[in-house]
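User: Assemble these into one structure.

Assistant: Restating your components, then the assembled model:
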Amino acid sequence: NAGVTQTPKFQVLKTGQSMTLQCAQDMNHNSMYWYRQDPGMGLRLIYYSASEGTTDKGEVPNGYNVSRLNKREFSLRLESAAPSQTSVYFCASSAREGNTIYFGEGSWLTVV
Amino acid sequence: EDQVTQSPEALRLQEGESSSLNCSYTVSGLRGLFWYRQDPGKGPEFLFTLYSAGEEKEKERLKATLTKKESFLHITAPKPEDSATYLCAVRDLNDYKLSFGAGTTVTVRA
């Protein structure tokens, strides 16, 4: 049972570099999400896609872009990485908005 | 704005020593309250959803309860494998998005 799969698992970037985090789910879910998790803070929503073809900003969208490539895949792009974007990123999905959200294993990103 | 506060931040228990975790929340209207378990280096794993005051859910040594302002996660006779961070999240009636608390890290010593 793969569920939600994220790549890469670990990444170190220099300030100003760009990168894309990839996410795919095999549960035929309609809704997908990107969260970040920082020490002492709850998970915060960056962007979400309620259904294929739609994306919306979450709580902390600045410095990020997303693409819902198809029903299975939802990518997160950092155009010009900043040290403040050092965090653990989680992709998640749910059958539809309002249903239980299931998370991937996380991607650890360090920006130096 | 929805707010979720979890206490304590950390809890150290002896194996078999039962205890409770608290999740206090402020929402305009509750669509659902969720509990997740997170192991180090892993993503959150869904445990329970509670929808209305008075509701209870159980899974092995865990029992979640809900009132109008807070939820408790009771751990009965914990084992070392119950060591994890437990996250609480709420969904508002006006919004489908989840608001998470910072979590309670539970360590159970053998």
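Chain A touches chain B at residues 4, 40-45, 48, 50, 58-59, 90, 92, 97-98, 100-106 (CB under 8 Å).
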